[in-house]
Design goal:
8 strands, six-stranded antiparallel beta sheet, alpha+beta, two-stranded antiparallel sheet, 18% strand
């Protein structure tokens, strides 16, 4: 891991209200190499993408207090939450993040972004394509409470929308420091249970062949069991065909069961990520894929016999 050893950290790494405890402070990761990996800013008025250093440089407003002297709006700097999250997840996964991306809205008073980590599977292989992402958001204007989530398929936008697993939120009250720390420790500790388990399955499925005919049967069962809609069926089929032709993602065009599953989850990206049904579809698709994996996959050389409509001319209904 890329860990700071200096005893006098620069301001972007200075912890003001949160404490790292015994967790080593991990430096900010670089920005992503592709625009498609950046945090979304659709629907967020005046949104601006930026690096962690730029986000940390935004002045943090003063806390507000009640007449009794008790704090009413306890503001934690975005840099505190991000530094703690980055370091805790890096410690749990034993690897530094690949990249991170941040954005602000409401004239810098609202922020959101994500950290993306590679994952080391049970076999010891380090996966960068099947990463675990950590999404975080918060505000200085009381509109968005500090919150976060993680997983393989997370969603975050500068307009405040967020989804993922192990979701948490903390009210900006007197106990916010303890609450944020508690939530992040718990979430990072559970991040490999579901997302990591799925990556281990994908690694296993990548060794199971899936010819076109097996994929058609796979999609047919998902549709017949009403796991996917006709629209998702069509999108998954188009995704598979584009990948296997080398027109989309080469890594998903190798005709394996992992690529079949990726075609379905790729189609799911068109589903609003915050709906309960989208998570149900993903779980059901995983169960069906496990069942296909138990068969050992497709066998080379098996083809459907050719036929023409004339072969059925004797039937009146054809």
């Amino acid at each position: 891991m890329n860990v700071l050893t200096t005893t006098a950290p620069s301001s972007v790494y200075q912890m003001y209200k949160l404490s790292l405890g015994n967790t080593p402070l991990v430096k900010a990761a670089p920005l992503p190499d592709l625009p498609s990996k950046q945090v979304m800013i659709v629907g967020a008025k005046g949104a601006k993408r930026m690096s962690f250093a730029e986000l940390a440089a935004i002045p943090v407003p003063e806390d507000t207090f009640k007449d009794s002297g008790k704090v009413s709006h306890n503001i934690v700097p975005a840099s505190d939450i991000i530094n703690l999250a980055r370091s805790l997840y890096a410690e749990q996964l034993d690897v530094a993040p690949l990249y991170e991306t941040w954005a602000t809205a409401a004239k810098g008073m609202e922020w959101a972004g994500k950290l993306v980590y590679p994952y080391r599977s049970k076999s010891g292989q380090l996966h960068e394509n099947y990463g675990i992402s950590v999404v975080l958001r918060g505000s200085y204007n009381k509109n968005i409470a500090p919150s976060g989530a993680d997983g393989m398929d997370t969603f975050i936008c500068a307009n405040g929308m967020m989804s993922g697993q192990n979701a948490w939120a903390a009210r900006q009250t007197e106990a916010i420091a303890e609450n944020v720390h508690k939530h992040l420790v718990e979430a990072s500790g559970k991040c490999t249970f579901r997302a990591g388990g799925l990556i281990d399955l994908l690694e296993e499925w990548a060794d199971i062949p899936c010819a076109d005919l097996m994929f058609y049967a796979y999609l047919g069962i998902l549709r017949g069991r009403k796991v996917i809609t006709p629209t998702l069926y069509s999108r998954a089929l188009n995704y598979w065909e584009a990948c296997t032709r080398g027109e989309l993602h080469d890594a998903h065009g190798d005709r394996t069961l992992a690529s079949a599953f990726q075609s379905v989850t790729g189609a799911l990206h068109s589903v609003v990520p915050t709906t309960r049904s989208s998570f149900g579809i993903g779980g059901a698709a995983t169960a069906v894929t496990k069942a296909f994996a138990s068969t050992g996959g497709s066998v080379d050389g098996i083809e459907l016999p050719e036929f023409s409509l004339e072969d059925f001319a004797q039937f009146e209904l054809v």
